[in-house]
Amino acid sequence: MTFPRPVFAGIALATAVLASTASGTSLVEATAAPPTLPLEIIDDVPLGGATTRFDYESYDADRHLLFIAHLGDSEVVVFNTQTSRVVGRVPNVSSVHGVLAIPQLGRVYATATGANEVVAIDIATLTVSARVPTGAYPDGMAYAPEEHKLYVSDKNGGTTTVVDVSSNRRISTISLGGEVGNAQYDPASKHVFLNDQTHRELVEVNPATDQIVGRVVLPEAKGNHGLLISAAQHLAFVACEDNARLIVVDLRLRRVVSSFAVGKDPDVLAYDDQLGLLYVAAESGVLSMFQVTDKTVSKVGDGFVGPNAHVVAIAPDTHRSYFPLKDAGGKTVLRVFKVAR
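Structure tokens predicted for YncE family protein:
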């Protein structure tokens, strides 16, 4: 799917950001400029709770449930995308950062950073079924289904904690040697990749042995934290929070093939594989979008989608995108967009 020209997202904003070129030039701030993205706003749905920080989201497509980490409230918010309402809350997940739904297990895992543990949540009952100790500051997670293992990135500990999901026990700790960013599983290689922010590297782990089997140097990276893998294109997308870059890694060649400018302080990435659209959400509220094909990655544009809109998730069945906002007019909301046709 290609977009010959950008269309307005339909939000009146006092301040926005002009689109940068696909070659990766710097973003230019402007006033009274509407965002130029192929998106249309659908709704702002109240999420409740205090106007505190949200973090990662994870979507269970089988059950149409979106799990949202309300970090500041130490709870996981459960949102039904079919009824567009909050259907549950899981409290006592201390300073929750990461969430990862694993539909085949009927479970959601959440990283309780305030307690240095990962919490297993039963989807049917929305109750905590296990708590597993991790390293310092657990954040992102990846699941390797063949080995039934969960990999937790211990950001400040410089490690990844390996959890056996059959028993919900910690079975290994892998040292990466630096500050750890997000983790992702690659179905093509059946390996797990993690960001080593200190050494500007993408680290490859074989879940069969829990050994590091490779490192990809990311020369342009500063704060390579966000990570997403497209198995079909054999590409890894790395968001660098300290220099506002998106780095594209060819996983067949194990090397960087391109990079682009994105919004200031990029964080969470999401990918609509049917439409080939990559979303890069930033702390600055700027969303950068890219068109991904078998051969190329090209920039669609940038636009301001909401204050502190650093988290995005996509429902593949509807192509809708979801941005939890901690303070939109004095309340928490889930801002929902659809792709403009």
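DSSP finds no helices and 30 strands in the chain.
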